[in-house]
Design goal:
Elements (H helix, E strand, L loop, with lengths): L3 E5 L6 H9 L5 E3 L2 E3 L13 E3 L2 H9 L3 E8 L2 E6 H9 L3 E5 L2 H11 L3 E7 L3 H11 L4 H15 L7 E4 L3 H15 L3
Parallel strand pairs: 1-7, 1-8, 2-7, 3-4, 8-9
Antiparallel strand pairs: 3-6, 5-6
């Protein structure tokens, strides 16, 4: 039976890098395709990177309880995970991987219970996280400070996850994630 693997982490923890590493292993993992109300960027295609919905359609689907989790990031800018899409991927025999915020991760875990493994990728410290975000060179100082404040809030959710992996050294964190996922999938 196909399973679900949920990843959550503060921005800058290395979560995307670890997920991409796992996707490159032979684990029959498939990324969950989220829905969004933002317009496609560049070469993004509906049903590939995202399902693109209007804000009205998104609200209608929320009202119909069609989402495992969703968030209105800004006014009329929604992101969420459609139950039907996840069920389709599971029915196709894919182990579904989620990259979601801490609240979404907890909601998906609650919905699927033991069929899902929730993994929290934790930075070694808030100071190290600040160093990484500054080192990226992609955000203004005020954006970095708001990400740090959000990270401090998100770190409080770590105990709610099945497994916490501290990403102090990337190779070690990748190896630990691979071991945990392999055991969970009984491979």
């Amino acid at each position: 039976m196909a399973k679900l693997i949920i990843f959550s982490a503060p921005s800058g923890s290395g979560k995307s890098t670890i997920i991409n590493y796992l996707l490159a292993q032979n684990l029959n993992l498939a990324f969950s395709i989220s829905a969004t109300s933002r317009p496609p960027r560049g070469a993004e295609r509906d049903g590939v990177e995202y399902f693109f919905l209007t804000p009205e359609e998104f609200r209608r689907r929320i009202a119909n309880d069609e989402f495992l989790e969703y968030e209105e990031v800004y006014q009329d800018r929604f992101y969420g995970t459609l139950k039907a899409q996840v069920e389709k991927q599971l029915a196709d025999g894919q182990n579904v991987v989620f990259d979601v915020d801490v609240v979404g991760g907890c909601n998906i875990k609650k919905f699927y219970g033991g069929r899902a493994l929730s993994v929290f990728i934790q930075p070694p410290s808030v100071e190290e996280l600040r160093k990484r975000l500054v080192g990226r060179g992609t955000d203004a100082p005020d954006v970095i400070e708001s990400r740090i404040a959000k990270a401090e809030y998100e770190l409080g959710f770590a105990p709610k996850f099945d497994k916490v992996i501290v990403n102090d050294d990337l190779e070690t964190a990748e190896a630990e994630a691979l071991k945990v996922i392999t055991q969970f999938l009984d491979l």
